[in-house]
From TrEMBL:
Keyword terms: ATP-binding, Nucleotide-binding, Transport
Region (Disordered): 230-250
Domain ABC transporter: 8-245
GO cellular component terms listed in the entry, alphabetical order: membrane protein complex; plasma membrane
A GO molecular-function annotation: ATP binding
Protein name as it appears in the record: Putative ABC transport system ATP-binding protein
Transmembrane segments: none
InterPro entries reported in the protein's UniProt record: AAA+_ATPase, ABC_transporter-like_ATP-bd, ABC_transporter-like_CS, ABC_transpr_LolD-like, MacB-like_ATP-bd, P-loop_NTPase
The species this protein was found in: Natrinema hispanicum
Amino acid sequence: MASSGTAVSLSNVRKTYRIGEPVHALDGVSLEVPRGSYTAIMGPSGSGKSTLMNLVGCLDTPTEGTVVVGGQDVGTLGDRERTRLRGTEVGFVFQTFNLMPRLNAVENVALPQLFQGVGRAERLERARDLLERVGLGDRTDHMPNELSGGQRQRVALARALVNDPAIVLADEPSGNLDTDTEADILDLFDEFHAGGTTMLVVTHERHVAERADRIVHLLDGRIERIEELNGASGSQPGTPAGQEPGGSDE
């Protein structure tokens, strides 16, 4: 996968839900996610993390501003076009795995390619190759209920990568795993990132976020600051560079 250019770009994005009084889930967020980068998103509940992931994942559209994924403006696309874009440009890894219970491991991994019209032999070969890469080459025929939590998350990661997406979105990917298994999954994230995969991870855990190149701290629907993990720390305009995560002058 190419490591130059931009995988995702958000420009002055606002997302407002009208349930009685308007609720501004995101309020003027601008962010670029370069191809080949590893970004973590942190923030308290209600900070806008899930809304941001839904927009980047083409599951929703902004009220204002632009979200560009894989070179396409998500807000200008119809439902079918967004579904197609989501299938080709975005891979998802969920806390609860979201595997199809009646499909075995290789069938779960291959499933996204079915919707892209890839032939059966080709998609199964690709799925087996990815399962081998995540250490499950001997578990391809196992059903989800025959796999441990860590193994199911490995299947989910392989599935996320099967279409060679522009970006992999991971939402609390280690939330249901024990400490040792969590470390194994995060090591796999590191490995695929080193190979050029663009990673965007939402987490409440500092040690998980520190695997990334940078941490985007959200608070009240805004970017509080962007923390570079090479020792430098950046901030959005109007935000004190030294402000701690979770703090607010409001």
